[in-house]
Write a structure and sequence with these properties.
With about 425 residues, the chain is an alpha/beta fold. Helices cover about 40% and strands about 15% of the residues. It is built from 19 helices and 15 strands. The chain has a 6-stranded mixed beta sheet, with helices on both faces. Strands 9-15-14-11-12 form a 5-stranded mixed beta sheet. The chain is elongated.
C-alpha cells in the first residue's frame, strides 16, 4: 500500500490515478505530469458491442470521473463508427460484424449509463459518437490524407496485429488503427483533446494517434494506458461462472451486484477499494490493515461504495440490508427460513416457477441451475456432492432430492444458498 500513501495530496490527478493503480504506461511521464497541472481535455473510446457496460469497463469509466473531479474535461466517445469495423486488439478471432441498427441502439443505451458517472452539464464532459465523422469519410481522400502517414511495416509490428496474424486478420480489422488514430486527431482539432486513455491492449492504437497528430499538426499529444485487472485467483476482472457482471440492473440486480463485490477475494479488497471507490486513499490504507474476521467490514464497505456509485444510495442500502440479514440468519442457529426471506425480499434474486411442477417434485440440482446459482446441472451436482448447497438453510444431501410443495410453506417460496453468501429464491406461480 505504500504506492497509495499521500497520492491524493498530490498536485495533479495524475498522482491520484497512479496512486490508485490506474496507470500502466504513459507516452511521456514528465510531459503528462506538467500538462495536468492545468485544465485538459481527454478521451476514451468505448465499443458499442453491448447495450450495457460491465464491471470490466469500470476502470476506464472511473478514470474519466477522476479526471472530471479534478477539473478536467473528459470525452466519452461511443464507437458508433469504429464499431462497424471491429477492434482486433485483445481478440484471437474476428469480432462478429454488427448491424448499424444494433450499434446505434447499443450506443444510445450506453449514453444513459455514462450519466451515472459524469456530469455533462455546461460542457463539463462531452458525450460523442464517432459515427458522426467516420461514416462521412471519403475513402480515396482518407487514403491520401491519412493513410499516407502510416507504415505497414510498423503496423505489422504492433502486438495486437502480430497475435492475430497467426489466426488470421481481415483487411477491415487492419484498418482499425487508422480510424482510431483519426479519432484522436479529429478530437484534437475540434475539441483541443490532448490525452487519449485506454486499456493496455490499446497502446499501439494510442501511439498511432499521437504520431498522426505530430505529423499533421506538428504538435504533441499524449497517451495513458490502464493495466488489465486480474483477480488474485487469476481470473479476468468482472468474469464469473455465470458470465459478465453488468451495470444494467435488468441484467445484474443491485443485490447480485453487491454480492459480487462482497465476495471479493481477501487478497483483492485493498486494491479494489482504491480502484473501484472514491474513498480517500488514507481511508483505503486503514482498511488494508484489517485481517481475519475484521476484513468483512472492509468487504461490506467495498460492496456498498461500488454499488452506490452504479445504482445509487437507496439500492445500495437495500442490498446491504438484505445481505446482512441473510448473513446473520445463517450464522445464528436460532433463525429459521422464514426470518431469512422477510428481510428486503425485493433485493433477493427471485425465480418464479409454476406450482404444478412441484406436485411430483423437482430435483434439487435442477433448481440450482434454473436460478443461475450454478452455471450448469453438472456444476450443481458437484456443489451438492461437496456439501455446499442449502435449501431453506438445510444442507442438500442428494443431488436428486425432490423439492415438493411441502417445502414452500405458507409464503409459497423456498430459499436456495450456494456456499456461504450466494442466495436465490423460488416463488410459486399459480398458473391455471
Amino acid at each position: 500500500m505504500n504506492a497509495f500513501r499521500d497520492a491524493e495530496h498530490g498536485h495533479t490527478v495524475y498522482d491520484v490515478l497512479k496512486g490508485r493503480g490506474f496507470i500502466e504506461q504513459v507516452t511521456d511521464d514528465e510531459g503528462i505530469r506538467k500538462l495536468l497541472e492545468g485544465n485538459v481535455t481527454c478521451y476514451i473510446g468505448f465499443d458499442p458491442t453491448a447495450s450495457s457496460f460491465h464491471v470490466g469497463n469500470l476502470v476506464p469509466i472511473l478514470s474519466l470521473a477522476h479526471m472530471q473531479k479534478h477539473g478536467h474535461q473528459p470525452i466519452a466517445l461511443v464507437g458508433g463508427g469504429t464499431g462497424l469495423v471491429g477492434d482486433p486488439s485483445g481478440k484471437d478471432q474476428m469480432r462478429q460484424i454488427m448491424t448499424k441498427e444494433e450499434i446505434r441502439n447499443n450506443a444510445e443505451a450506453q449514453k444513459k449509463q455514462f450519466s451515472r458517472f459524469l456530469d455533462f452539464s455546461d460542457n463539463k464532459a462531452l458525450l460523442l459518437n464517432n459515427a458522426e465523422w467516420l461514416t462521412r469519410l471519403n475513402y480515396i481522400d482518407f487514403l491520401r490524407d491519412i493513410g499516407v502517414h502510416f507504415s505497414v511495416n510498423r503496423m505489422l509490428a504492433a502486438e495486437s496485429v502480430k497475435i492475430r496474424l497467426e489466426t488470421g486478420l481481415s483487411f477491415i480489422e487492419f484498418n482499425y488503427q487508422l480510424l482510431q488514430a483519426y479519432d484522436f486527431w479529429y478530437l484534437f482539432k475540434n475539441h483541443n483533446c490532448l490525452i487519449q486513455m485506454g486499456g493496455s491492449d490499446q497502446w499501439g492504437n494510442i501511439v498511432a494517434g499521437t504520431d498522426l497528430i505530430r505529423r499533421l499538426e506538428g504538435k504533441q499529444a499524449y497517451g495513458i494506458t490502464f493495466p488489465l485487472i486480474m483477480t488474485a485467483d487469476g481470473r479476468k476482472m468482472g468474469k464469473t461462472e455465470k458470465g459478465a457482471v453488468w451495470l444494467d440492473p435488468e441484467r445484474t440486480s443491485p443485490y447480485e451486484y453487491y454480492q459480487f463485490w462482497i465476495n471479493t477475494d481477501d487478497r483483492d479488497v485493498n486494491r479494489f477499494l482504491a480502484l473501484f471507490t472514491f474513498l480517500p486513499l488514507e481511508e483505503v490504507e486503514e482498511y488494508g490493515k484489517l485481517e481475519g474476521a475484521d476484513l468483512r467490514k472492509a468487504k461490506e464497505i467495498l460492496a456498498y461504495e461500488a454499488t452506490q456509485i452504479v445504482h445509487g444510495k437507496e439500492e445500495a442500502g437495500k442490498a446491504r440490508d438484505a445481505s446482512k440479514a441473510l448473513f446473520i440468519s445463517i450464522s445464528d442457529a436460532g433463525y429459521g427460513a422464514d426470518s431469512v426471506t422477510v428481510a428486503r425480499e425485493d433485493s433477493i434474486p427471485t425465480t418464479s416457477m409454476e406450482k404444478g411442477k412441484f406436485i411430483e417434485g423437482v430435483s434439487a440440482f435442477k433448481l440450482f441451475e434454473v436460478t443461475a446459482l450454478c452455471s450448469s446441472g453438472s456444476e450443481a451436482r458437484r456443489l451438492i456432492e461437496q456439501g455446499g448447497a442449502y435449501i431453506n438453510n438445510k444442507r442438500v444431501e442428494k443431488f436428486d432430492l425432490l423439492v415438493t410443495l411441502e417445502d414452500f410453506g405458507q409464503k409459497n417460496e423456498v430459499l436456495l444458498r450456494a456456499g456461504k453468501k450466494k442466495f436465490s429464491r423460488i416463488k410459486l406461480l399459480d398458473k391455471n
